[in-house]
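By way of example, what follows is a protein record of this kind.
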Amino acid sequence: TCPVGNKATTPAGAKTVTTFLMDQFRTSSSYSTNPLWKVVDGPWVISSYNPVTKETTFARNTHYTGPTKPHLSAYTIVTFTTGAAETNALRAGTLSMGFLTPSEYDEIPYFKSHGYHVEGWPIYGNNAVELGYTNPTYGPLVKQLYIRQALQHLITEKLYISKALHGYGQLDYGSLAVLPQANVVSPTLSHPYYAYSLHTATKLLSSHGWKLGKDGIDYCAHAGSGPHDCGTGISSGKQLSLLLIYGTGSTSVLAETEAFAAAAKSVGVHFTLKGESEPTIETQGECPPGPCDYGLMIQAEGELWTLGYQQGMPTGTEQFGPGAFYSGGYSSSEAFALMKAADYTSSSSLAPWYKMEEYLSKNLASLWLPLTDSITVVSPKLKGWSPLNPDTTFQPQFWYLAGK
């Protein structure tokens, strides 16, 4: 009911407007009643919100005049504290669509036998093993490209997908997983730059001054910054030992972690494994400001990266750009320039994105693990939910109930 203002036309006024909007955003208890959040141009409008559980209901926007008017009068997003609770809700029929993790693979036969649709949901993104570039102990090691290459040669993605993920995963050799018919992924990323090879990993390390110690751990025998030395910041006698933090609560993540550690041990690289809960993982992953308190970090299941989008395209800036929280302090002027070019290109060509993806993959901004699909379980009564959108957004305006 207030008149249209123009405060945002000055820096001071814009700050006032921003402060106001952020204050409204922080007051989550009024999400469902604040008229500000009723200003929508899409098919749905928020009708209820629980600030404690985050359960949210969206009602049909009766003023919507665009295409694909909703069939449903409303839908509710329900939250769960555990995967088991979500699975129980699916079993009880109180949930029309939900998700299983690969750790709950054994539940799939039950749902299929009761008429549920079970389908993997591949997304645009990647599953990164973060590297602690800013850690004073491990940083000098992971800053060496040849060490990152050797570590990547220890990961066998096809086997991980087959055994640990039960087939519900996508090959991921760079900043985007290799999705079928996805032209946003550089064709060169359909195959790994650093294929699984214990021999190649061993050769990379030995050719840069590392020797196997009596305890089975490589040590730096040729300190220095030359082409056949261990590298800058690595002292003579330093062991190739890294702290690997991984997310707990997932048998598939644990299986991948243990397989990675076993391969590393076979070439003289020692991992100290440390399991952490998801909240702790998220806190430790925020560096900068740092320094990072790990050498390697494998996110808990479900904590999979989806990249920032510009013009509907994943440019990598939010994950690997300057000052990004979840990159371990990765810093590459060439990568930053390529990401900026991808961000601001006005060309219809995909070349800028391809160049960015290829560099991040070759340079190993992080190590790459297969991207885990969400295992989607859908009630036989719900229709219109397929195909699943690879940018992870729901499109409930297409949904309807059987017979309606």
In short: Residues 11-26 form the longest helix (16 residues). Confidence is low (pLDDT under 50) at residues 302-311.
